[in-house]
Write a structure and sequence with these properties.
With 563 residues, the protein is of the alpha/beta class. It contains 23 helices and 15 strands. Strands 1-3-2-4-12-5 form a six-stranded mixed β-sheet, with helices on both faces. Strands 7-10-6-11 form a four-stranded mixed β-sheet. The longest helix has 18 residues.
Length: 563
């Protein structure tokens, strides 16, 4: 957990002005009058929040991407201090001073001081956010999981977004998120959360140590049984040839509470993603009857000793760190550049820094039948109700900043760096070379990899197409292109077609907590998974699971996905 006050308040102390002569006072008055006349017709352009002109440049001047620099409007309105709580990668650190050019741009454009607290998603994240809220320090802007967002809305912590998140005030954001998607994202019949920008393409894949396969004379697994055989070999046959029994087949992160989706037993038993439609019926995968066989398969794998024994306690990206350290041979990655040669922070480059022979390559045992579901909006962002009621101007300013982040200027700065230094631009074409990569390594990654903090606004792989941009990455190796080709060949299962919300009064957080409690009980306390039908019946009745399923079914039917 890192809490950083990104900028120290600096105020110049105005020196007392000596009394001047009558004529100087007159001249100053005339200058003020002339200035007011000449600037009066441009207030809309100068004020990034639109002000009295109806928000013509709402979103920080987002129509031209210049924000407050367009006439210096940011300096003509009050300075604000904003508190954010967002997720980031575990290695991200916000540097002080001008090294963080993203923070510098935001604070100068919008005349704010940003206090950003950031940490990886997981139980520690949830605990810290709950602590802030219970102590009366709810951040002005915060991110959470979908389940927790419903609880915050029920508890009255979140603000109504209707006056703030609109196509007029956030035109750039609505290039990425449609109004229909926004409407379907509402829960508790309230508009108090909005989705972060999410990718339409899916790059989720298993990755395997190809060099370990080569060492053992094995082929790339193509189905579930072959994957299990490879995991056994990676555990018992010394794949790294160091003469030690110190490797496992795969790892995952349970964050101390959850059965990871990374385990192949989910898809093996027909449960793809969190929610799906099967045979014209909605299926809640985590509480489905087939979970019995998923849990039994994981128990068998654990008993065999071929999975990292600490997987349930791993938090954030700790499982990836173990893969980097050569402790496991199979891991799941969700980003396009997860194992790219051209991404200096990829698992490929991090592992090669330790073992130059390392080679992570993508595969999937269910590539031909369905590896994941098509994308829907994922994590939400929310505003503090207290801030919206007491200081609505802070929410207005945050909205401008977020819309700038969704603009060309913000998108490029946050995801690619500074033009001319970290990329070149010719019209709508963005080109990245090795020289740009070297500069990014020095200016960003070695300074704390701080871009990862601001990338909270984009889930996984932000795609440039909504902004009309084309990325030409000259750094991409033949291997990188082969990785993309392989993953894009995977079959995806159709999504449920809409975000769904629980029925009023239904406590989804409590339902999921009890469900996960039973998952863990079966995995770690019971001899087999035979009690799952009994536990499931309790979830469906005592905890209202069937009521939830019925409500979801009606919403999906209303969207025209099922008959």
């Amino acid at each position: 957990m890192v809490r950083v006050e990104c900028n120290e308040k600096k105020r110049e102390v105005e020196k007392p002005v000596k009394k001047r002569s009558f004529w100087i006072v007159v001249l100053l008055a005339l200058c003020v009058a002339v200035s007011a006349c000449s600037g009066g017709g441009n207030n809309g352009a100068n004020s990034a929040n639109g002000g009295a002109n109806g928000g013509e440049t709402s979103g920080g001047g987002s129509e031209n991407g210049d924000g407050a620099d367009n006439g210096g409007g940011a300096q003509e309105r009050p300075h604000l201090e904003l508190n954010w709580f967002v997720h980031s990668s575990a290695d991200a650190i916000l540097p002080k001073g001008d090294q963080d050019f993203i923070r510098k741009a935001i604070e100068e454009k919008f005349n704010v001081t940003l206090n950003i607290e950031h940490m990886p998603m997981g139980s520690d994240f949830d605990t810290r956010l709950s602590l802030l809220m219970s102590s009366g320090d709810t951040p002005d802007l915060f991110v959470s999981t979908g389940v927790n967002s419903q609880k915050f809305i029920i508890d009255g912590i979140t603000a109504d977004m209707t006056p703030f998140v609109t196509p007029e005030k956030m035109p750039n954001y609505f290039k990425w998120i449609s109004e229909v998607e926004l409407q379907r994202y509402a829960v508790e019949k309230k508009f108090e959360r909005a989705p972060l920008i999410f990718p339409r393409k899916v790059y989720r894949s298993y990755y395997i140590r190809q060099d370990w396969l080569d060492n053992l004379g094995l082929k790339m697994p193509t189905n579930y049984d072959e994957m299990m055989d490879v995991m056994r070999a990676f555990t018992f046959n010394d794949p790294d040839r160091n003469g030690k029994n110190d490797t496992y087949g795969m790892s995952a992160a349970g964050n101390g509470s959850t059965v990871s989706w990374d385990f192949p037993q989910w898809i093996q038993h027909g449960l793809i993603g969190a929610l799906m439609v099967r045979d014209n019926q909605y299926v809640d995968n985590q509480s489905d009857a087939n979970v019995q066989y998923v849990l039994q398969g994981i128990k068998d794998m654990m008993a065999e000793g071929i999975v990292d024994p600490d997987w349930f306690l791993n938090k954030g990206t700790e499982h990836v760190d173990k893969a980097v350290g050569g402790k496991v041979g199979i891991i799941v990655g969700g980003t396009k550049s997860f194992a790219f040669d051209s991404d200096p922070t990829s698992i490929q480059n991090r592992t090669k820094a330790i073992n130059p022979d390392a080679n992570w390559m993508p595969f999937h045992p269910f590539a031909d039948t369905g590896t994941w579901v098509e994308s829907l909006p994922d994590l939400p962002f929310m505003f503090s109700r207290g801030t919206a009621e007491k200081s609505p101007e802070k929410i207005e300013r945050i909205v401008e900043i977020l819309d700038w982040m969704a603009s060309e200027e913000g998108f490029l700065l946050i995801n690619y760096g500074q033009e001319g230094k970290h990329y070149a631009r010719n019209g709508s074409t963005i080109t990245i070379t090795q020289a740009h990569l070297d500069a990014l390594q020095k200016d960003v990654i070695e300074q704390g990899n701080f871009q990862q903090v601001y990338r909270f606004f984009y889930s996984h792989n932000p795609e440039p197409e909504p902004l009309g941009l084309t990325i030409v990455d000259e750094r991409l190796s033949e291997r990188d292109n082969e990785i993309v080709k392989t993953i894009e060949s995977y079959k995806l299962y159709p999504s449920i077609g809409t975000n769904v919300s629980p029925p009023p009064g239904f406590n989804l957080a409590d339902f999921r907590a009890k469900m996960r409690e039973y998952h863990a009980k079966i995995l770690f306390e019971e001899p087999d998974a035979s009690n799952w039908p009994k536990y499931r019946e309790e979830l469906m009745t005592t905890y209202g699971g069937q009521q939830m399923i019925d409500a979801y079914t009606e919403q999906i039917r209303a969207a025209g996905v099922i008959q």
